[in-house]
Write a structure and sequence with these properties.
With about 60 residues, the chain is an alpha+beta fold. The chain has a single domain, classed as Alpha-Beta Plaits (2-Layer Sandwich). It has 2 helices and 4 strands. The protein starts with a strand and ends with a strand. The protein binds copper (II) ion (CU). The site of copper (II) ion has 4 residues, from helix 1. Copper (II) ion binds next to helix 1.
Length: about 60
């Protein structure tokens, strides 16, 4: 499962914002975001461009660590 570190999440709302943003990326399914570890993971239904993952996280207001 691809996993990325997300910086800047502080609460449940941040987690939901990141989940939502990642879920919209083409090919991404089953997003899981863990606040404590700051990690987001997902399944690839089709090949996912990591650039799009990065952009989605940044557009939601967070940073990829
Ligand atoms: Cu928050």
């Amino acid at each position: 499962m691809p996993t990325v570190r997300v910086e800047g999440m502080t609460c449940r709302h941040c987690v939901m914002a990141v989940e939502k943003a990642l879920s919209r990326v083409e090919g991404v399914k089953g997003v899981r975001v863990d606040l404590e570890s700051g990690e987001a993971s997902f399944r690839e239904e089709s090949p996912v461009e990591m650039d799009k993952i990065r952009r989605a996280i940044e557009e939601a207001g967070y940073k990829v660590g």
